[in-house]
Amino acid sequence: MDVVPALEEPLKKVLGPATAKVMAEHLGLQTVGDLLHHYPRRYEERGRLTHLADLPMDEHVTVVAQVADARLHTFASAKAPRGKGQRLEVTITDGSGRLQLVFFGAGVHKPHKELLPGTRAMFAGKVSVFNRRLQLAHPAYELLRGDTEETVETWAGALIPIYPATAKMESWKIGKALQTVLPSAQEALDPLPDSLRAGRGLVPLPEALLKIHRPHTKADIEDARARLKWDEAFVLQTALARRRHTDAQLPAVARRPQPDGLLTAFDARLPFTLTEGQRKVSEEIFADLATEHPMHRLLQGEVGSGKTLVALRAMLAVVDAGGQAAMLAPTEVLAQQHHRSVTEMMGELAEGGMLGGADDATKVVLLTGSMGAAARRQALLDLATGEAGIVIGTHALIEDKVQFHDLGLVVVDEQHRFGVEQRDALRGKGKQPPHLLVMTATPIPRTVAMTVFGDLETSVLDQLPAGRSPIASHVVPAADKPHFLARAWERVREEVASGHQAYVVCPRIGDEEDAPKGAAKKKSPEDEAEKRPPLAVLDIAGQLAEGPLRGLRVEVLHGRMQPDDKDAVMRRFAAGEVDVLVATTVIEVGVNVPNATAMVIMDADRFGVSQLHQLRGRVGRGSAPGLCLLVTEMPEASAARQRLNAVASTLDGFELSRIDLEQRREGDVLGQAQSGTRSSLRMLAVIDDEEIIAEAREEATRIVAADPDLTDLPALRTALDALLDEEREQYLEKG
Fold first, then answer.
1. What is the mean pLDDT of the chain?
2. Measured between alpha carbons, how far is 590 from 465 in angstroms, rounded to an integer?
3. Helices (H) and strands (E) in the chain, counts
4. Which region among 360-369, 513-522, 636-645 has the lowest average model confidence (pLDDT)?
5. Where are the alpha helices (DSSP H) in 52-193?
6. In which element (H, E) is residue 102 found?
7. From CA 583, how far away is CA 507, in angstroms rounded?
8. Is residue 367 within 8 Å of residue 393, measured between CB atoms?
9. What is the pLDDT of residues 246-283, one digit of tens each?
């Protein structure tokens, strides 16, 4: 029988089935190794008490404090009509503030005996308010007298670790469980190569695990954190480096544009000159296309920076070289929009084989799921024969029936909406792997790009093309100042009166069935405070058409409309036959109507920072200045209002993406591919640890180049296998 390595031992065998079940269900911890990597959130110093003054409402907290006084009250109630009901009120203090603990009924006896004035203990519970005072009702507690052997053992050391905990599993129970498994830390396999560890003065992994859970000094904690951050950064970067290395071994057809071909003709037609950024990025792409290994490049560009033009020039270069190019869009609305703008930009160059088409023209076809049978048959035929050099479509492009004559380049718009299977299925359409260009309008801080898109080379377009107008953004506090909202509708009417158009965006469509039970998300205190459901397109459109926007041409657009209806609405809006388009976020990406100058976003606090930035980028696309109004009912002091103020204060998407990231948990950066709620990043902070991530990437790239299979580093291989369970492997492939 195989001996299970100590860190892979199930917790059930070590801690017993009851404790193990709670740890698995509430904290996602299954093995001894999982528990050893469940790090303390912070540390309490034995001699210093926590700040009771800073307790957050409705959160589960652990505090260390001293009992100031304890009083037992009797009262009459329905259950105890003769005045036999008992309530124990204990006041604890830490010098910064006081907090009331309350125990009822039979639960008063034990604390009444134990929580005497002067006693010090750890208390854990949910903070609530009663009679305008903070309190913990029936908190769990652990005395810190050190009068029994177990307590002395458990709380030895001057620093008390406070763990991320739940109501079912308090911090000190996790601490006691760790006491049991800590000896196994000695057997932890060290994934860092000795030379790397020594060169950076990092402590060995077993020592780091001991120091993080049982530090004697603050220096111990620093040593442990420095080491554990490196582990996370290095293992992840090794996974990405191996992927880059594997991709670089694949063969691809080099695609070099002809000197006087389609690309030259297209450039000559352009009514403007390319920006410096567009020229530079195009050169990077052309250099990649000219090599015999597939390009894997991420093109980041601010909303409206001209990414589509750069992608189109790359596609034309490939057509010049005898290949075909495919552009994948996440929605039909966007695919149709891209098809329209590409054929408009190319003019007669997109009319290959047609009367009036230029000599070196090619055919540009659209392929979506909702096309009629005849049009679809023709499009498929044009792709198979090579008649069509460029195809634009949704994931309908990936279906088995779609055959290409010679697929040379795949452009994926808004990468995060495409899964790994889709990306690989499309790659499989070429005789050899096609080149890949991924575009995103969501600016990604450099560290996140290195962490999440680490298998792609990155190009950034950060200049706006000439003639683009600035966008003014303002927060409209509808609850505090209703007249501001009235003024917002007046501004929309003014824009329409001067010949422009406007969007009104809502979080919901409005024809939804009641959400199925169990689908309810856990509400934040702010949501709870504001019980009303998010505003809906169908309701708001009716209210506006009959109220503040009476007399204007108001239409709706949302994801559950029939594709033909959606396209018809977008065409009417683009043609100027609609004044105000009330829509969901279907307009978030790629919709391009230069005459639309104003946008009102209802319930703006229900959207994320980068989503608001994306939406705002739909206005100010012509020569007239853009206006974006963020309507919210959130109170001024709320985090949601601060987020909206940040969006209103800057048009720099990279700055906003940092703010967005700082406000979310790190785990969200790496997507939700984590099993349960655990992120592979427990110690590493993507924004703060930029240097570590950059250095880890360099080290990983060097090590993988020298030893791609990591033959000489078995412990690193084991750590990689643990990181890349199936879900994670897929997540990395999705980029």
1. 80
2. 16
3. 27, 21
4. 513-522
5. 109-114, 149-154, 171-181
6. strand 98-104
7. 9
8. yes
9. 888 888 889 988 888 899 999 998 888 888 889 999 99
